[in-house]
């Protein structure tokens, strides 16, 4: 199949008006501005009696950037290192070994994927490779009809047991840790959203994620450039503009290496960029030992815009110092179960042409509508 079906990263353009409060927090003397994420210490996050509504609103609310970070998570720094160091080793396995890790039936949403996804230009993306797996369930279901209908969710993990046996443990441990912290964050998101809306039992963000079999981890490896990138290289040169369509995405800070030695990023302008609701583009930064979390479209719709998703992209390092530098990172896409009923609100401002007011769809059905919109294909 020529078109890459990347079900976790569908995109749209935000056009809604944005409050001026964000503009006051950004120094306009430099463009794009560099902004630190709102950060919550883990000790506060795990306290269910703590009132984190102000920080939730600042990071995820209508005036926020759709991202915040969690600091001081026990064990996180070690497991981030353990997994990200495996990125170059995985990408440099023999081609015949990597082919055995591919899964075309899942549209390359399980196992190894390289050159299957298209860039904004329409060309195949040869700049990065990805390894996908469900960190909780090696076999989410054995029901063949579901596997055929939702192959990117219901397929089975493929691990390089002989070629890179340590990958499975490192991937699952980090993925489970990011999910557990994400569930704590989801609890506080529910408390924040419930102040202004009636939340039916079992339909909050936390319970939606607890019961899901759809969570998907993505280990990304960006191949080193053989030549320095030009100064005018696109802002989205490493990852095109998109908005995650699931519920909540956990992100590690990327690891840069040259000749298998970890280095600092050689270009301070490289990294994650976010587009605000006024159309501003800002560079977002968070600590290397922090876990960043971004809101997805599904959460924005179900919260009636109280928790907001934003388009984002990744810029590659430029200049002579970037030659030969590679990057590895990890994302965990937390999303509803394929059978989870989503009760959409009366006013839907995203994908209005796809969703009826007060409509109920399963997450799998909702995903099919999005895939048909963006790729003119059905699952």
From TrEMBL:
Record PANTHER family: NON-HAEM DIOXYGENASE N-TERMINAL DOMAIN-CONTAINING PROTEIN
Organism: Solanum bulbocastanum (Wild potato)
Protein's recorded name: Non-haem dioxygenase N-terminal domain-containing protein
Domain of life where this protein originates: Eukaryota
Alphabetical list of InterPro entries matching this protein: IPNS-like_sf (IPR027443)
